[in-house]
Design brief:
Elements (H helix, E strand, L loop, with lengths): L7 H8 L11 E5 L2 E7 L5 E6 L4 E4 L1 E4 L2 E6 L5 E7 L2 E5 L11 H9 L10 E7 L2 E9 L5 E6 L12 E2 L5 E7 L6 E7 L25 E2 L10 H10 L7 E5 L6 E2 L3 E2 L2 H14 L4 E4 L3 E2 L12 E5 L6 H13 L3 E6 L25 H4 E2 L4 E2 L6 H17 L4 E4 L2 H5 L21 H17 L4 E4 L21 E3 L1 H11 L11 H4 L10 E5 L11 H4 L4 H17 L3 E5 L24 H19 L13 E5 L7 E6 L8 E6 L5 E7 L4 E7 L15 E3 L10 E7 L3 E7 L12
Parallel strand pairs: 16-19, 16-29, 19-22, 22-25, 25-26, 26-27, 27-28, 28-29
Antiparallel strand pairs: 1-2, 2-6, 3-4, 3-7, 5-6, 7-8, 9-10, 10-13, 11-14, 12-13, 14-15, 17-18, 20-21, 23-24, 30-31, 31-32, 32-37, 33-36, 34-35, 34-37
Helix pairs in contact: 4-5, 7-9, 13-14
């Protein structure tokens, strides 16, 4: 009788894990006018269906292969009790529950316009139809069957096959009783029934500790007690604000005893306190999205929605962000939408087809990094990336995203020879689909999260990177000035005797300084792969190396543009960065290193306290050369201006190891306080200075009506500000 209630071929397909629509067979279904419960419980020898409040028992018939059939007199809610191998267990049947996703979710998912994709896909702890459990949903349009597997079902893909949601390509299932911490993956049968490698959740919120790589059910609920910061954030992140960024690799900033990585909670105390004390305005985290290989530093992400478990859970990462906000620090994340690794458990060939990537390697394979390139022209993939950006901004109150390797996204021929790339629809080299994705991301980020900032690492002269989208730009708030970085570091590495032949390298950046909203970046890329440390790049003996670096930082902080230093550079670590170990904090026992740290702290303070040094970072009216052509003396002088009532700051730089008595033009009469001198003994210098300041003389110089003779120490930067009685000089020479 039992066999007649169901098509035997369908039951065999269920038992063998081949059925593409398990919810049409399993659970409570009406067949030939009768209500029948069909359950697949491998390992069970007997099964009872329990109905009503009293749990009336009706024993099911074993069809075979773990499938049980049980007619009921009427439609009713039920539970199951199984017996097998000397054990009895009672449980809710996942196939007794209706769908979770609604029609609007289906519509937006199918259209590729669901801004908050993470709210419907992934693994969510919910109460559904009065029962607690976890809802799973995943996009796999070309799969013939998708299942959730884990320890809870002995990794058997036949036990929890998912419900397909029409033409959206999304599969879902609610599994009762699964709690936070459950380890899971997806088992997919691709086109033609091919069994694929087990896949981590593309929208999973947690992961196992590497090298294990399964997803983990994690709650992302919970608020942040940072209302005061959020209400004023926009004042700290616009082009007029002082922005000084400390770039950090969380795994190697500092290690705990036993060489253990610090947790998010430990970093919330130690790192946040340090960065605030140093006067930086922002912490920029190298990628924290889950990644399989430590040596990639996070730039080959697999779990774009999962804060890496290396430092803790999503809740603990949220606490880290809140701690930064409590100290008045913004938190920026490196975001990597340019490529992803080909690891078998990741996005590559996710449903047996080129789903997230291009099928043609001329479009979809990144030759530099042996990774795969997202198919930005597919609406679902574009939606996945834009939604991921919004996820970090909304769920964790991240203050901004620094987008990695933008140049590699903008050009179809990036790092490719002729014949190795496919032109765009107009025959050009620009990746129009990637451009559209970046524009959409910026429109969404700024539109949905007021006060955020986005930053492009873009190494070419692509026009309008930080121009609004409605004015033809990409829509970023800021752009890294890679040209400035390359030119100035090239100059600094030269022996001072040769610098006069390369004088323009320090001035060239001003020719294009106003074309974008620039950040001046000395990032991790400058202190790895044999490039040596910042200190190691400097010419000369030990003392001269420190003096050169102090002068360079003085030049950088007075130059138009926001600032960024990578960790360790603030105290002139001697060795280049090694991601496998802590920074060399013991070097701060050496006065020269401690002096460099003190200088960076004071540079941040002077930069923040003087509007002239930051208000017009992105406008030409904030800068004027006093002396740009003294190649023979390798000296530079300029004036920085803020608002009409803000005291001006005059900056004089000496890039030779020779002390000078130097006449500098001054844009106003009166006294000018020496507010910073990189040669101060506070910073490890020789304390040669100007006794606190200079008074303007009626001598025309540098095109100004006033000037003064200043003491210019060797290899130094000196700042002078229009005097105020309340001013207290910083790092004043004797």
């Amino acid at each position: 009788m039992a066999a007649g209630l169901r098509d035997d071929s369908a039951l065999w397909a269920i038992a063998e894990g081949r059925h593409g629509d398990p919810f049409s067979i399993l659970g409570l279904q009406k067949q030939d006018g009768k209500w029948v419960v069909t359950a697949f419980v491998p390992g069970a020898e007997r099964l009872w269906v329990l109905t009503g409040k009293a749990g009336k028992e009706t024993e099911a018939t074993h069809w075979g292969q773990g499938i049980f059939l049980c007619p009921l007199p009427r439609k009713a809610s039920y539970r199951l009790r199984a017996e097998g191998h000397g054990t009895t267990w009672e449980f809710e049947d996942p196939f007794a529950f209706g769908p979770v996703l609604g029609e609007m979710d289906e519509y937006l998912l199918g259209e590729g316009t669901h801004k908050r994709l993470w709210q419907v896909l992934g693994a969510h702890l919910i109460t559904h139809e009065g029962v607690e459990g976890t809802h799973f949903a995943v996009w796999a349009p070309n799969a013939e069957r998708v299942s959730v597997v884990g320890d809870f079902n002995i990794w058997d893909g036949r036990r929890h096959p998912m419900r397909r949601r029409g033409p959206t390509g999304v599969w879902e299932i609610f599994i009762p009783g699964l709690a936070e911490g459950t380890i899971y993956k997806y088992e997919l049968r691709g086109p033609g029934g091919a069994q694929l490698p087990l896949k981590a959740d593309p929208v999973g919120f947690g992961s196992e500790h590497p090298p294990a790589n399964a997803s983990v059910v994690r709650s992302i609920k919970g608020g942040l007690s940072d209302q005061a910061w959020m209400e004023t954030r926009q004042d700290h992140q616009n082009i007029d604000a002082p922005i000084s960024v400390y770039e950090v690799h969380l795994g190697s900033w500092r290690r705990a005893p036993g060489d253990r990585m610090l947790s998010y909670l430990e970093l919330a105390e130690q790192l946040v306190t340090y960065v605030a004390d140093m006067g930086f305005t922002h912490i920029e985290l190298m990628p924290v999205s889950e990644y399989p290989f430590d040596g990639s530093w996070g730039y080959q992400p697999v779990g774009l929605f999962a804060p890496t478990i290396r430092h803790g859970t999503p809740a603990e990462f949220r606490a880290f962000v809140a701690a930064a906000h409590a100290k008045g620090l913004g938190v920026l994340l490196d975001w990597v939408p340019g490529h992803f690794p080909s690891d078998a458990h990741g996005l590559a060939q996710f449903d047996g087809t080129a789903l997230y990537e291009h099928a043609d390697p001329r479009e979809g394979f990144h030759q530099d990094w042996n990774t795969l390139i997202f198919n930005y022209g597919r609406v679902e993939v574009q939606n996945y990336l834009v939604s991921n950006a919004l996820y970090w901004l909304e769920e964790f109150h991240i203050d901004g995203l620094r987008v990695d390797a933008v140049a590699s996204m903008l050009y179809r021929d990036y790092s490719r020879k002729d014949g190795e790339w496919i032109p765009n629809r107009d025959g050009g080299r620009e990746n129009l689909e990637a451009i559209a994705m970046l524009q959409r991301m910026n429109i969404t980020a700024y539109g949905e999260c007021p006060g955020v900032m986005t930053v492009a690492e873009e190494s070419t002269a692509f026009p309008g990177v930080s121009r609004p989208v409605n004015h033809g730009g990409l829509g970023f708030g800021f752009k890294w000035n890679m040209g400035w970085m390359n030119d100035t570091l090239s100059y600094m590495q030269k022996d001072p005797i040769h610098r006069k032949y390369h004088h323009h390298q320090m001035t060239f950046g001003l020719h294009y300084a106003w074309t974008e909203n620039f950040i001046l970046p000395i990032s991790h890329d400058e202190v790895v792969h044999g490039k040596g440390s910042m200190l190691g790049k400097m010419p000369g003996d030990g003392e001269q190396k420190f003096a050169n670096l102090r002068a360079y930082y003085g030049f950088m902080w007075a130059h138009p543009g926001k600032k960024l230093l990578f960790m360790g550079q603030e105290f002139a670590q001697g060795a280049e960065w090694n991601h496998n170990q802590s920074l060399d904090w013991h070097q701060l026992d050496h006065p020269a290193h401690a002096g460099m740290q003190a200088l960076v702290r004071d540079l941040n303070g002077v930069y923040r306290d003087n509007p002239a040094l930051h208000v017009n970072d992105s406008r030409p009216e904030g800068f004027a050369w006093l002396e740009a052509g003294d190649a023979e003396g390798s000296s530079y002088a300029w004036v920085r201006k803020g608002g009409a009532d803000d005291p001006m700051v005059v900056v004089v730089i000496n890039m030779t190891p020779v002390a000078r008595e130097y006449r500098v033009g001054l844009p106003a009469d009166g006294h000018w306080d020496e507010i910073l001198n990189t040669d101060s003994t506070l910073y490890g210098g020789g304390n040669r200075g100007n006794l606190g300041g200079v008074s303007a003389q009626n001598v025309t110089w540098h095109g100004q009506q006033h000037s003064a003779i200043v003491t210019l120490p060797p290899l130094s930067a000196v700042y002078f500000r229009q005097a105020k009685m309340s001013d207290k000089p910083v790092g004043m020479g004797k």
